[in-house]
Amino acid sequence: GRSTLALGLPSVLFGLTSVYLLFLIGRKIGSSNLGLISAFLLAISPMHIEFSQQILHYSYFVFFTLLALLFYLDFILAVSQKKIKWKSFDLFILFSLLNLLTHVPALLVLLIEFVFLLYFLVANYQVFKKYKKYLLLLVPVLIFIIYLVFFFNNGYYWYLVIVDNLKFNISTPIQL
Q1: Can you tell me the distance from the alpha carbon of 51 to that of 57, in angstroms, rounded to the nearest whole number?
Q2: By CB neighbour count within 10 A (0-12 exposed, 13-18 middle, 19+ buried), where does 60 fall?
Q3: Fewer CB atoms near the end CB (10 Å): N or C, the chain?
Q4: What is the pLDDT of residue 19?
Q5: pTM for the complete prediction?
Q6: Given 3-state DSSP classes, what are the helix, strand and coil percentages for the chain, each rounded to the nearest 5?
Q7: How far apart are CA 79 and CA 90, in angstroms?
Q8: Rounded average pLDDT per 10-residue block, the chain, 176 residues
């Protein structure tokens, strides 16, 4: 439909579900109290409330970022316990790609996650040594991300995310 309810309801649902996802992430990395406090702070965040009411993509971006992060943490924590959960890794890639379809700065989120993964593997060299033939499958994913950023569509994502956002001109006012 074309009514405000039909167009705005997905943003509200994604915004509400994001609060629950943040609870799950907090519980996974800390405790239930951390998850509850994190979810509460997101639930009362004026920016999150505003974005969940708008008929825009921001609540989708938060939702898919948190969902990808949840499966990313599941994968990382399993690797630290000397197991590999390929299902979690596959779901992380899937939701990261969906996140890329909702908002271009998802490339930066994905890049940060891969930098942390490389740091994690360097810090836990024994884990990397044991599973290196499997973990080297991450290299094609990283190459694909680099291709998207720098070469796809003549480097438009690089220009849009980095170059265009670094231009500051104090003499001209910001238009809202």
Answers
A1: 8
A2: buried
A3: C
A4: 96
A5: 0.77
A6: 80, 0, 20
A7: 14
A8: 86 95 95 95 94 90 95 88 84 89 83 82 76 72 72 68 58 59
